[in-house]
Amino acid sequence: xxxxxxxxxxxxxxxxxxxxxxxxxxxxxxxxxxxxxxxxxxxxxxxxxxxxxxxxxxxxxxxxxxxxxxxxxxxxxxxxxxxxxxxxxxxxxxxxxxxxxxxxxxxxxxxxxxxxxxxxxxxxxxxxxxxxxxxxxxxxxxxxxxxxxxxxxxxxxxxxxxxxxxxxxxxxxxxxxxxxxxxxxxxxxxxxxxxxxxxxxxxxxxxxxxxxxxxxxxxxxxxxxxxxxxxxxxxxxxxxxxxxxxxxxxxxxxxxxxxxxxxxxxxxxxxxxxxxxxxxxxxxxxxxxxxxxxxxxxxxxxxxxxxxxxxxxxxxxxxxxxxxxxxxxxxxxxxxxxxxxxxxxxxxxxxxxxxxxxxxxxxxxxxxxxxxxxxxxxxxxxxxxxxxxxxxxxxxxxxxxxxxxxxxxxxxxxxxxxxxxxxxxxxxxxxxxxxxxxxxxxxxxxxxxxxxxxxxxxxxxxxxxxxxxxxxxxxxxxxxxxxxxxxxxxxxxxxxxxxxxxxxxxxxxxxxxxxxxxxxxxxxxxxxxx
Length: 530
Description:
By secondary structure, the chain is α/β, with parallel strands linked by helices. The chain has two domains: about 5-90 and about 100-115 and about 115-120 and about 140-150 and about 195-290 and about 490-495 and about 500-530, 3-Layer(bba) Sandwich (FAD/NAD(P)-binding domain), CATH 3.50.50.60; about 155-185 and about 300-375 and about 400-455, Cholesterol Oxidase, domain 2 (2-Layer Sandwich), CATH 3.30.410. It contains 13 helices and 22 strands. The longest helix is centred in the last third of the chain and has 21 residues, at about 510-530. The model has no long low-confidence stretch (mean pLDDT about 95).
């Protein structure tokens, strides 16, 4: 059955204004009512809302435009084209792998569709500790509900694949709480390759929802345009200067595109937004840009099962457990989920070398993986990392791992091993350079306690980037106010996950959708009233 490609089918008939930076031959200036830098969860929703208000919107995207006809389930091709730094982005020290999208639609094109509202305890913490206004559970509920309806978010109705079912079975055996994950899909084929782009347009990413709607409303899209700097005058952002990129999506062509508007929205994410502001020498009297960058540090545990799991097939994430999320006895809270295990991604996540990697990957059909997502940013010993610029002006994340985080990672390894053995695992291996597969829980726990808690030996990763341009009403402690306006520029807004004062404690895409709907609606109202 042929799947219609939304962009190819509608772009010409509806006269969508789409521009490839690689094909622009000379430097130009583009003007609009609003410039939005980034087309992911924050930028996509903002573009839809602002264009629906009758405003002339221009969307600017660093990545390429890839659509359903391009998504052929080829991992190596997808990682090189759809992810930041070819899926090779890491923290400054190279110790934590960072998986972040880089395409029209941003990370929503490659995420695993898990869609959680911001947990009530997180919203309460933001109000109490960071003086946020308008972010109570009651105030945010309508925005979440509207985005859930817009993107068809609902609990996954199909039985979980074996990879997720083992998480459920382990929780049941341990009498731990668990639940079904809501997903933003419509007519999902249950292929399991969500991380390399959805070939059936079932995933309700910004690529197939809000960006097309904004284009239909008269917005323009410029892609392969890398935002280099913002031009500031007193109390105002005047323009965004971008470098056009060649067909490889990396090499500047020498063409400069200047985007000017009375209102500018940054939605480039928790690494790129601070990087752009730092390159621009943005006003920052209290040195808050790039600070409090949180990532949900992730560790993982592998289990050998007697029966085939085929963890590369079926909805990637459909079961989770928050049993250790909020009742922590002083330790860091964490969420338990599973990752899909396509071969190339698995080889990278496992992080072993030589014959040890080869022997582990030979077992892939019988492997199950559980991950923990640590809830950073809530404790004085877990304040996140900071964004800085390297010698070439590119943003990098410096993320220290404190003793508090190491304690949480060790506890998470214990609980993941307990869960996997309870679900019938033959052997379990915590992902660590020095670990082996252990045939009993007691043996595994002793190994976990003896393995050196060191960067580059302990396998750490993240796909959730938050903070760096945090919200708050205290100018000395935040970058933007509760409505997303930059404290030191009246017409610059930051609308995406970089605004979060802490991590979410859940996969953040729906949190970003709700925040963007709220803040973009306020911005649209203020512009149209003026």
